[in-house]
Amino acid sequence: MGKIFLWIGAVSLAIYLVKTQLWSSKTYGPFVEACMTGENVTQERCECLGKYVHKHFSDNEVRAIMAQRLEGAFGEKVKEVVAAGSQACLNP
What we know:
Elements: H1 2-21, H2 28-36, H3 43-56, H4 59-66, H5 72-88
Helix pairs in contact: 2-3, 3-5
């Protein structure tokens, strides 16, 4: 019986570590902070836009967006997603 609880504990710890280390976004906080430097913004709108953008782009793509590397089709997709996200987040 003790081995079962040991295995449950080990699996739970592994799931927790994977969730906190791999699935958490490293760019969400910096994205929201950069958003807050704009004019006429609120914390709620920036958090909403951050969630919207992170739903559509990976962390590497968000890094490229924040570094203003928006060439070609990727740049067009970014403009469309940000415009749609901004519209969706007007009244979060």
